[in-house]
Amino acid sequence: MYVCLCTGVTDGQIREAIYDGCCSYREVRQATGVASQCGKCACLAKQVVRETLTELQSQHAAIPYPVEFSAA
């Protein structure tokens, strides 16, 4: 779905920017150009960023780690 019509940024592109290493709305905005024109899409863009980061955090927390870890 298009989030930003001015620059043609989709929710998939926002998610991809996060998967590529963006860790905040500011970084996503710099990487994609979302909300850089009229700004009407900023709320939706922030929501997509927030949901995606939350999803990644919960997935990361679900990864089982060994109880004991020793560096060789």
General description of the model:
- This protein has helices at residues 11-19, 25-32, 42-61; strands at residues 2-4, 9-10.
- It has 72 residues and is mostly helical.
- It has a single domain (2-61), classed as BFD-like [2Fe-2S]-binding domain (Arc Repressor Mutant, subunit A).
- It has a two-stranded antiparallel ribbon with strand order 1-2.
- Helix 1 packs across helix 3 (42-61).
- It is elongated, with a radius of gyration of 16 Å.
- 25% of the residues are buried.
- Its cofactor is [2Fe-2S] cluster.
Can you summarize this structure?
It is elongated, with a radius of gyration of 16 Å. The protein has 72 residues and is mainly alpha-helical.
Helices and strands in order, then pairings?
Layout: E1 2-4, E2 9-10, H1 11-19, H2 25-32, H3 42-61
Secondary-structure element sequence? EEHHH
| Count of structural domains | 1
- Radius of gyration from CA coordinates: 16 Å
Number of helices: 3
Determine the CATH topology. Arc Repressor Mutant, subunit A
Strand content: 5-15%
The CATH superfamily bears the name: BFD-like [2Fe-2S]-binding domain
Kindly report the spatial arrangement of strands forming the biggest sheet.
1-2
Structural class: mainly alpha
List keywords for this structure.
elongated; 3 helices; BFD-associated_ferredoxin; Bacterioferritin-associated ferredoxin; BFD-like_2Fe2S-bd_dom_sf; single chain; 72 residues; mainly alpha; electron transport; Arc Repressor Mutant, subunit A
